[in-house]
Structures are given as C-alpha cells and as structure tokens.
Amino acid sequence: MNNQLVNSLQQPLSLRFWQLALPLILSNVSIALLGLVDTAVAGHLPGAYYLGGVAIGGTVFNFLYWGFNFLRMGTSGLAAQAVGRGDAVAVRATLAQGLLVAGMCTLLLLVLQQPIIDLAMRLILPGQAVTEQARAYFSVRIWATPAALANFVILGWFIGLQKGRAALYLLLMVNTVNTLLDLWFVVGLGWGVEGVAAASVVGEFTGSLLALAMVRSILRRYPGKWGLRALVDRESLSKLFHTHRHLFVRTMALLGVFVFVNAQSARLGDTALAATAIVMNFYLLASFALDGLANAAEALTGEAVGAGNQPYLQRVVMLVLGWGTVVAVLFSIVYALAGHQLYTLMTDLPAVRTLLAELLPWAVLLPIVSVYGFLFDGIFTGATWTREMRNTVLVSTLLVFLPAWYLTQPLGINGLWLAFVLFNLSRGVTLGWILWRRLRVPGWLKTANGLPRR
Fold first, then answer.
1. Residue 3 lies in a domain
2. Model-wide pTM > 0.85
3. Residue 48's pLDDT band (boundaries 50, 70, 90)?
4. Average pLDDT value over all residues in the chain
5. How far apart are alpha carbons 31 and 288 in whole angstroms?
C-alpha cells in the first residue's frame, strides 16, 4: 500500500469525497448551464426552427463528443489506479497514450465531417428550416474537435489524480468564454446559430491552453521522463484499448437513445422538438451535478482498486449512494416548485411553453430515477469494469427502452418520455445488481486484480 493511500485512509472519507466532489459538481454544472444559455439564446430568436437547429446540431455533437467520452472515462480510471499503485511512470504514460488516441480520433472526425452531418440529417429528418440551421451550426463547431477531445483526456487525467480544482478551472475557462461569446456573437453581432457554434470553438481552444499549463505544473510531482518504451508498452496499451473499446460501445448505445428521443420529437413537429430540447437540458443539469459525485467516485474507486483494498471500496460505494440520493431529491424538489418559472426563462414561444407545462412531471421524476445509473457509472469507471457498463446499457436500450417506446406510441411525446425514464431506471438496477454480487464476496477484489488474499 503506497503512502498516498495510507494518508488517504487516515483522513475522514466524507471530507476527502467532498473536497473532490464539490469542484467537480461546479465544473459539471457549468457545462449544463452553458447548454441552457445556448438554448435560451436560440429560443429568443424569431422562430422555433432556430432553437430546433441548435438542438439538432447540439445532438449531433453530443453523439460525436460523448461517443468519444471514453477518452475521459478510460483515462480517469487508469490514472486513478496508477495513483493507487504509486506508479509515476504509468501516471505519465496514461496521459500521453490518451492524447495520442485523441489525435487519431480528431483526424477521423475532421475527414468524415460531411458524411457525418449528411447521415445525421437523414436519420433525424427534421424540417427544411431546422435542417439548414443545424448544418450551419455543425459546419462551424466541428473545428473545435482537436481541442475538445484533448480536453476530454486531460480532464479525465485530472479526475484520476484527484485534482478537482484543476478540472474546475479547465471547464470554467471553456464555459465562461463560451457563454460570454454566445451573448456577443448572437445578441451583439447577430450571427445566429453560427455565433453559438463559433463561441464553442473559441472556448474549447482557450481551455486547452490553460489545461496544458496546469498539466506541466502537476507533472513536477510525478518525476520521470516521457519514455517511448512506456508509451508503447504492450500491456498498458492493451488495457487502454480494452477499456476504451467497451466504453465506446456503451457510450454510443447511450447516446443512441438521446438521438432517438430527439428524432422522434422532431417527427412530432418543431414545437415538440423545442420542448424536448428544454426538458433535456434540465435533465442534463441534474445529471451533470450527479456526475460530479460520480467523478469523485471514479478517483476514489480507482485508488482502492489499484491497491486491492475492498473494505475501502465498500465505504466509497455507500458514501456515494447516500449523498447522490440527497442531491437527486433536492433537484426534483426544485423542479417541482420552480419548474414553470424556469421554463419561462428559456423561451417566450407560447406553444412551446404550453407543451413544457405538460412535460414538467417527467423533469421532476428524472433526477430520482436516473441517479443510481450515474453513480454506478462512476464506480465502474474507476474500477475499469467497462465490459459490464457496455452490457447493461445494451440491455437497457434493446430490452427496456425500445420495447417501452413501441408500446407507448399512442401516448405521443409522453410515451417517449416514459420510455426514457424506464431506460434510466434500468441502468441503475442492472449495474447495482452486478456490484452487489461482487462486493458481498469477501476478498473478491484482490482475487480479481490478481493479488494474493491476506
């Protein structure tokens, strides 16, 4: 057991957890707030098709960027386990290997940008006006890809090393610049949806510059060199691609559900699509806050798994579940009491407001239903149990979400949201069942890691 873990165990776990979780919650919420700003700016342009264009364009990038979010999740788990083992060489190699993979993914997206947007429009089939706005948005924002994917890797590395403040500074820089430029480009200069996209490009690159400066400072605490041998080590690369492969499939299936929800809403008309975009942003606001707790769980779980310390892991799990439940309930209470007032801030279109009032119960229910899927994702990511994450999302998508949507189609948009609620519930139940089966066996973690029992 290395000195860092010894020191960790001597500190109150709740204190360590919140020291890490609070900056991560703030940084994650800033992402959701940025989405709300984008939506609000577009929602006050003269016509629902502007908001629909940003919603569809944003959905395409959610699918692309979140599809490559395995770069962040895989890096955080591997870096946290390297910290748990006290392996400074692996800490450096994890960052370098992640950035190398991010560069390869960036090249792929830039080369295939036109086929990607063409395919997206064929799958979603929005109206002509929405399609034009979505294409304009995509053509600008795609150039944020190099910085965005690099930021994923660096953010995951920060989380794995339990550098919550560094993660906060990175995302605050990206989102503050983005928000200010949103208002300037769209409201001040009248650039429309292209202004929303251009703000994202500048924000991502500004964040990358700050991130690299912080990386340089942090590496001084992990002495070593950027050796080619460590970078191309077969065992570590094998684990990296094994982890990334399962996370990629898991994330693509997860985002497939989000795209499906938006696509079905688009088929119900521009008003339904606009209302869905706003409800989804409130769902994402709660999910990003809960992901802050899950990110803290990633770091602590990876540390425990790297050291083979199952009792410590069990303490982390119970703490995360307890606080996650509290935070989820608070979000539901806020949405129940102030949902109508919040919606009026997002749009002044009467038809959209009327539909939002009908959909409010789903916004209230979602934080409570989805909380455990988010939290267990963090725990499984830190442990790099990515195969199980992949399988449970596939089960929740193919055996729960799609059948529920098919059976509830007569309910229209409410049936769609019911299916989405059941999907989130299924993710938490299936992951929780797997975790419970493992942790109830004493010494299972040491055996799974190839460590001798004591």
1. no
2. no
3. low
4. 81
5. 8
